Amino acid sequence: MHWAQSVLALRSRMYKIILAIRYLIRCRITYFAVLAVALCVWIVVIVMTVMTGLVGGYKLKNHKFVGDCVVGTKSLVGFAYYEDFIKMLEDTDYVEGVSPVIKSYALAGQPGTGQDIRLEMIGVDPARHSQATGFAETLHYHVDDVSKVFEPREDGGLSGCVIGIDRILERDSNGRYTAGPYPADIEVAVSCFPLTSRGALVKATTGLVNTKTFYYSDHSRTGLARVDSSVIYLPFEQAQLLCGMGGVPKRVNAIHIKFKPGVRLQEGCQDVSSLWRMFKQAKTDESQSYLLDAVTVQSWRVHRRMFIAAMEKEQAMLTVMFGFVGITTVFIVFVVFYMIVSHKRKDIGILKSVGVSNANIVQLFSGFAFLIGVLGSSIGTVAGWLFLLKINRIETFLFERFGFQLWDRVIFFIGDIPNEVEFKVLAVIVLSAIGACLLGALVPSLQAASLRPAETLQVGQL
Amino acid sequence: MKKHDYILQTRGIHKSYRMGATEVKVLKGVNLAVEEGEFVAIVGSSGSGKSTLLHILGGLDKPGRGAVSFEGRDLSRFSAGELNRFRNKAVGFVFQFYHLLDELSVLENVFLPTMVSKSVIGWLGYRRQARRRARELLVQLGLSDRANHKPYQLSGGERQRVAIGRALMNAPRLLLADEPTGNLDSATGNGILDSLEELNKAGQTVVMVTHDERIAQRARRTITLADGKIT
Ligand SMILES: Nc1ncnc2c1ncn2[C@@H]1O[C@H](COP(=O)(O)OP(=O)(O)O)[C@@H](O)[C@H]1O
Ligand SMILES: [Mg+2]
Predict the structure, then answer these.
(1) What is the residue with the minimal CA distance to atom 3 of ligand 1?
(2) With the C-alpha atoms ordered B11, B17, B23, B24, is the resulting torsion angle positive or negative?
(3) pLDDT tens digits, residue range B99-130?
(4) A317 and A281, same structural domain?
């Protein structure tokens, strides 16, 4: 019986349970404590969910844009023998897709208008690039037949090009793009500066630049504002020629790699890295082997760290700021408990006069605090969840009804506010809230319990 | 067979309170002894230290100097656990301001001392018995129809009788009452005194403090507290 008592009831005393619940129900001030906890949990759940959603989404877009791993150089000259390395990669058992890529700057504009703008030119084989990255998903007209993305609808002897969506379509005030059923008839003249393997400008047909005209055949929407407003994809061979990399040996700027499912990013990149060292070793005596020295092997995180780091900084800042909100909550709960316990000093005296121990008094108020914490954070969680469920509708309503917008949809590119509550984040928030309540209750109840009963009982007599 | 001469005995109890820089000496060597089955009234003017003395007798406060022994055992040697058990089982306290828990019903207030000493399971097994005893006490105190009321729904005299019920719940060997009639009109006060008298007749040891000589007359023995001492 004694054993059963200890285990089942943890030696808990009945009156503690009864009194904790009665205090919760009967004292109006506890409603405020519950409300304070609920409000804080509510706001933190919402902000953290939106923020982790935004950061997570942003990372995913970056990941999809470049694939898992990038073997490349910052230099516009590029490096040679990429075909040999690709063969080596394709012989391994951890690589799913490989895509050689030409990257350069280009001037582009409608021919004869003289209004050229600077774009980031990316030369890819569309099918291969889609195996290594999420390229195909970003397209509008060719999602299902990527290999034909550079084939314009009307054959005018020109090949097609894929343009970043923000360079070709306008967003309306609702943030929506309106694309026609077919790509509009637009010709784009693209000029590049061809470079020799030593980095010098090549004397080209029309002076120092190579120019070629393409048809707009599709547009790409990665969701990354910088990319979508500055990118132009060209067919791989033509881009290579434009940049002067088509000679012998041919050069590229990067190889994008996607790993097989189940391959850990870190390990995959390390394997590619050692493969690259072997490859470089084998090529030391070849001509232009010096170009291989500038090549690095980077995971997508490292490759895009400049963009991701900024976002992560913001998230860290926000977490710190909400840490302050948390501290404020602890303080509010602390004050509320201090008031409740002060208010209940006489009860503590009464309980002690009938033989309740100090430890049991502290436990009684801790249990009471625990109830408040659980109740408050449950209400806050449910309210936050409901709010997140409707957050996009609320946002749309505010915009349509009052013209109020959190961001200008013509400029910013956040389609939907992320609203998927992450369990881990939620667990941390709820546990901290309950912890805050316990902490808030502990100090005043310890203090009150340590008083002699005669002192607490005198309060009523003075 | 009696192991000790007195149920309660004090030797040279001193108690003083600090009020800023000055020290107020309230008790200056109180010696008293109470035999089992007695009904003792301690009389003294307001502020003479009666409540202070009674708290010390019941283990709710500690004397600055001197000793209290209960059934021959020195209270100051009790461990924290023993002291709690002493407060729970050995003494019953009736306060001038009743001191009931507003969150509990009248019946719950009465059986609180029993509930306090039981774990959840222990309580589940004992609850019926405790409820029966609490009801009996309420009947005895004329409150049988008030069991499910809340303390704030009762009059002063009724509340004080609930407090007496609570004090008697665990059948303590010593009942301490601090001006039990102090807040009541004289008719109601008399009712309370009748109850105490009856209890005493049934063998209950009672120590009551009061500032009122006439009330003190109801006890079988009167002790006067003046200038911090028994005179
Ligand atoms: N906690 C305390 N701090 C300071 N002074 C106290 C305290 N408790 C009682 N006193 C003082 O001690 C004296 C006796 O108080 P008390 O025992 O309540 O008297 P009585 O019950 O006889 O009216 C009073 O002067 C009172 O002001
Ligand atoms: Mg008094």
Answers:
(1) B17
(2) negative
(3) 999 989 999 999 999 998 888 888 888 899 99
(4) no
In terms of domains, do A141 and A54 share one? no
- How many Cα atoms sit within 13 Å of A135 on the Cβ side? 33
Q: What would the pLDDT profile of A123-167 be if each residue is shown by its tens digit?
A: 999 999 999 999 999 999 988 888 889 988 777 778 899 999 988
Domain shared by A314 and A194, yes or no: no
Stated length of chain A: 462
Same domain as A228, residue A338: no
Q: Shortest CA distance to A71 belongs to which of A81, A58, A57?
A: A81
pLDDT tens for B126-148 read 899 999 999 999 998 889 999 99
- CATH code: domain of residue B91: 3.40.50.300
Indicate whether B156 belongs to any domain: yes
Write the ipTM: 0.93
Shared-domain flag, residues A171 and A316: no
Q: Where are the alpha helices (DSSP H) in A258-304?
A: 265-282, 300-303
Chain A residue with minimum CA distance to B120: A14
* Domain-located, residue A349: yes
Residue ending a domain, among A294, A323, A349, is A294
Beta carbons of B116 and A19 less than 8 Å apart: no
Length of chain B: 231
Place of tokens 């102090």: B182
- The protein residue whose alpha carbon is closest to atom 9 in ligand 1 is B52
Domain of A456?
11-60+309-461
With the most atoms of ligand 1 within 8 angstroms of its CB, the residue from A451, A458, A459 to mutate is A458
For chain A, the straight-line distance linking the first and the last C-alpha, in angstroms and rounded, comes to 46
Nearest to A438 by CA among A343, A376, A373: A373
**B129 in any annotated domain:** yes
For residue B225, the CA-to-ligand 2 centroid distance in Å is: 12
Q: Order of strands across the sheet with B221-226?
A: B91-94, B174-178, B205-210, B39-43, B221-226, B229-230
Answer yes or no: is A4 within a domain.
no
A457 close to B178: Cβ distance less than 8 angstroms: no
Atom of ligand 1 nearest to the CA of B19: 4
Q: How many domains does chain A have?
A: 2
Q: Is A21 on the interface with B (CB under 8 A)?
A: no
Residues A124 and A217 in one domain: yes
A5 inside domain: no
A68 vs A271: CA distance, rounded Å: 13
